[in-house]
From TrEMBL:
This is Agmatinase. It comes from Halalkalibacter oceani. Belongs to the arginase family. Agmatinase subfamily. Signal peptide: none annotated. Pfam families: Arginase (PF00491). It catalyses: agmatine + H2O = urea + putrescine.
Length: 290
């Protein structure tokens, strides 16, 4: 069942009609209440779905077709505007339900703070899990201008939840000096600037472990994804991110869930950001839902 029985929005391409029979569930988290620069990512999930309608159903990267993946698009969680704490609780409650029902959760943001309640839900079921974090920003702050609920804090919260040695960040090219020092002192793995090659080196060390993957679209250079709230020059290409997604799919890790966040369509009239995001979601569905 969708969040709202009267849900009439577009669904991601080739979504199946039955929640009960699905293996994976795609769900939207339309929240941008805590962003520090430009809002608008709450419109990301809907536009990613719309862009998916222009995709081919077949992936030449993975030689798989979406007809082979039983997934259900549940629509967007009806998050209360401006109420970050309640919104996060609702996301955690929903992911709890998905896991109880044996589903693979694939979330669409929305801002990156939304990953925090997902981490909490996943850790309850998979206490030995690791997190792969692909992003331009370290997101290791304890607070932003006095506010602990900020999209600049989810990875610090994750480190405190499951231990920094279980958090692996890739593509990082922005953050406070203190954030980089925290990562070094805490023993957290952080690959600056690059994603695919350092990820390939790390994946064998995570073999057979449950791993959650969170991707912030701003890991891409603004030339490839201008539609995001906190764009950061010097990023990777769409090709490199596809290479990373494929590497994860072909590895021996057990992906237990994922999210893709921070698509803010208003800043990209060309729609290349949401088009790229929809392709990444297709590859995540095809490669990570076993």
């Amino acid at each position: 069942m969708r969040f709202d029985e009267a849900y009439s929005g577009k669904v991601f391409i080739m979504s199946k009609p039955s929640y009960e029979e699905s293996r994976a569930v795609l769900y939207g988290m339309p929240m941008d209440w805590t962003v520090s620069f430009r809002p608008g990512s709450r419109f990301g999930p809907a536009r990613i779905r719309e862009a998916s309608l222009g995709l081919e159903e077949y992936s030449p990267y993975l030689d798989r077709h979406l007809e082979d993946v039983n997934y259900f698009d549940a629509g967007d969680i009806p998050l209360p505007f401006g109420n970050a704490a309640r919104s996060l609780d609702m996301v955690e409650e929903y992911v709890d339900r998905l896991l109880a029902d044996g589903k693979f959760p694939l979330g669409l943001g929305g801002e990156h703070l939304l990953s925090w309640p997902i981490f909490k839900a996943m850790a309850k079921k998979y206490p030995e899990m690791a997190i792969i974090h692909i992003d331009a920003h370290a997101d290791l702050r304890e607070e932003y201008e006095g506010e602990p609920l900020s999209h600049s804090t989810p990875i610090r919260k994750a480190c405190e939840l499951i231990g920094p040695q279980n958090v692996y960040s890739f593509g990082i090219r922005s953050g406070m000096r203190e954030e980089f020092q925290y990562a070094k002192d805490a023993g957290m793995y952080m690959a600056k600037f690059e994603v695919a090659e350092p990820l390939k080196e790390i994946l064998p060390t995570l073999a057979n472990r449950p791993v959650y993957v969170t991707i912030d679209i701003d890991v891409l250079d603004p030339a490839h994804a201008p539609g995001t709230g906190t764009a950061e020059a010097g990023g990777i290409t769409s090709k490199e991110l596809l290479e990373a997604i494929t590497a994860i799919a072909n590895s021996d890790i057990t992906v237990i869930g994922a999210d893709l966040v921070e698509v803010a369509p208003a800043y990209d009239p060309t729609e290349q950001t949401q088009i790229a995001a929809s392709k990444f979601v297709r590859e995540m569905l095809l490669g990570w839902v076993k």
